[in-house]
Amino acid sequence: MTAEPSRSAGRMRASDADREAVVDQLREAAAEGRIDLDELDTRLGQALAARTRGELVPLTDDLGPAVLDSGEPLTLQGGVHGAARSGRWKVPPRIVAYGGMGGVRLDFTQAECRLREIEVEVDAQMAGVRIVVPLGWKAETDALDLGLGGLKDKTSGDRLPGTPVLRITGTCGMGGVVIRHPNLRERRKQRKELSRST
Predict the structure, then answer these.
(1) Are strands 151-153 and 104-107 parallel, antiparallel or unpaired?
(2) Which residue(s) pair with 180 in the sheet?
(3) For 128-156, how does the pLDDT look when each residue is reduced to its tens digit (9 = 90+)?
(4) Which uninterrupted H or E stretch holds 195?
(5) What does the alpha-carbon distance between residue 175 and residue 181 come to, in Å, rounded to a whole number?
(6) Structure confidence by residue, pLDDT tens digits, 176-193
(7) Which contiguous run of DSSP H or E holds residue 17?
């Protein structure tokens, strides 16, 4: 019975974000000399033509940790005490956030992200979902149900070349969804952390 979920995950249709994640990993492997240019061309062609996640997995299996997971999204549940993802973390292609009574905070400002698109499904519930993105990132919210809490998009809306797009779906619930850039205090904290690490 345990094999069934992985088989169904392998049959899932690959998204543009899935294919792009594999392409990025292949290019990085070629830059590090782990595959030669001929093999890179072959694998890139297979990645771009892949229709399912199952077709993508073998392309990176021998290159270390796979970019693709089993098909399960990163799920954050606010519950009573809240949940957050911040600091240095690796962004997966799909994220699901349930606000609950404590709320969820997603902070992408220091995250490692090589994806062109990130699917974020929200159910803001009572306490809402707060999303912090770097300057230049764009959030698309046309498919978001505003619910009672509504949406506050405080980002500039201007996307810089090569930066990701967050495709946000779901419902704002009663707590609402806020999307913003880092505030002054957060930017100062980031600069201090950067100066310590150099």
Answers:
(1) unpaired
(2) 132
(3) 999 999 988 999 999 999 999 999 999 88
(4) helix 184-197
(5) 19
(6) 999 999 988 888 877 777
(7) helix 16-31
